[in-house]
Amino acid sequence: MRPGAILVVGEAIGDFIPRDAEGRRYEAVLGGSGFNAALALARFGAHPAYAAALSTDALGRRFRAALAAEGIDTALIRDSARPTAVAIVSPLGPDGIPEFALYLQGTAHDEAQGTPRALPPGVTHLHAASFGATIGPSGDATGDLAASARTGGATISYDINIRATVLPERDRARALIEARIAQADIVKASLDDIAWLHPGEPAEAVAKHWRNLGARLVLVTRGSEGAIGYGAGEPLVATVPSVVVADTVGAGDTFIGGVLAVLAARGRLGRGFSEASREVLRDALAFACAVAADSCTRPGCDPPRRLAT
Fold it and tell me: Does CATH place domain 5-295 in 3.40.1190.20?
């Protein structure tokens, strides 16, 4: 694996996206938080590797082809004879927020060997994405992988990305998520994630709680209002450009890919993270907001090709 690689773990999902307002016509696009984040990192000039079990079915072959086309390291991909997991996305409501119906049981997502339990040589940073890094066989393996990353001096980011329909009841889900937060250096959550986990609590208070658990930087995305980073010192605020939204699928994955790509370009992942200045973090947030907004102008997760510097 290339020195300085960013290893991404998390789900690969075939997203069925509506192509009309009534949901009569759908298109199958490649998605899932893990896959999307790896895609964004590659397009922003980082060096991601992706680890997952991928089906040998038609969608699985499309995932492999897309990973290869983007130059993403696939050495840790494992074959599965099970079908690809899918999500049916509802037509957007007035708030522009998509709803997902996920179908995971009996799919490649359930494979026990899809996520490594030890960090491979050369990896500087581990990014753990959504429920694929939180629950089930892949979630269990991610806990061991994160412990290995911590021992090896790699930094860790965790995108909470709540999908309530596949999580256990709230208290149990919160415990699992907080266990992952305690292992992470960077935690990313949306306002909706925070509202589900901690109903009625201000985002700033929740971010403080997560920092007390061990996270060094908490990133809160706020849709059209941009993002806030809670770390040492005063919060960092980034605005988002005004765009015409096609949909918001994958915006959060594009955002975290943007943050990590800037930190990687500045040598501020791994052992260098402790030296990341407020200026570097501010630049990372600004870049992430810009590319996430750009992705929203196209259907599905389609990050722009823009080098992070």
Answer: yes
